[in-house]
Design brief:
The protein is mainly α. The chain has five helices and no strands. Among the domains are: about 55 residues, no CATH class; about 50 residues.
C-alpha cells in the first residue's frame, strides 16, 4: 500500500507524527512534508473540499452543499422544480446586485461631480489674487468648508 494512502487511513495524527519525526531527523524533509500537507489540504477543511469529502452521506450528498455561500454549488437537491426555482432566484438576485452596484457607481459619480462643480464655482467667485495678497477672512486657516448634503 502507498505510504500516503496509509497515512490518510490513519488520519491527521499520523501526518502530524510523521512531520514531527521528519523535523527531528532532518529539518528540510520535515519542511517538505509540512509544505505537502498544507498544499494538499490534508490538515484543513477549508481547502479542496476536505470537509465535504469527509461528511458525505451514503448518496454522496452533504447537508451543507445546498447552502448559499456566495457562489453557486454544482450540486442538486434532487428536486428539479426546486433546483429551477433556486437557479431563477439566484439569477434574479445577481441581476439586482449588478443593478445596485451600478446605482452606487452613478451615485458616487454624481456626488463627485457636485463637489467638483461646487469647487469650481467657489474658485470662480474668488477674486484673482496674487500669492502676496493678504487673506481678508476672519479665519486664519482659510474659509470654512461648506456642509455637504
Amino acid at each position: 500500500m502507498d505510504i500516503v494512502a496509509k497515512l490518510d487511513d490513519w488520519g491527521k495524527p499520523a501526518w502530524i507524527a510523521v512531520t514531527i519525526l521528519a523535523f527531528i531527523i532532518f529539518w528540510p524533509i520535515g519542511l517538505a512534508i509540512l509544505a505537502y500537507i498544507i498544499w494538499s489540504g490534508r490538515m484543513g477543511c477549508w481547502k479542496h473540499g476536505g470537509w465535504r469529502r469527509r461528511h458525505h452521506d451514503a448518496a454522496g450528498r452533504s447537508g451543507a452543499e445546498g447552502r448559499w455561500n456566495g457562489r453557486r454549488s454544482g450540486s442538486t437537491s434532487g428536486n428539479m422544480a426546486f433546483d429551477e426555482y433556486r437557479e431563477e432566484t439566484m439569477r434574479r438576485l445577481e441581476d439586482e446586485q449588478k443593478e445596485f452596484w451600478s446605482f452606487l457607481d452613478r451615485l458616487r459619480h454624481a456626488k463627485d461631480k457636485a463637489e467638483f462643480d461646487q469647487f469650481m464655482a467657489d474658485r470662480r467667485r474668488r477674486p484673482e489674487e496674487g500669492p502676496d495678497a493678504p487673506d481678508l477672512s476672519d479665519n486664519p486657516n482659510g474659509p470654512a468648508p461648506q456642509p455637504q448634503t
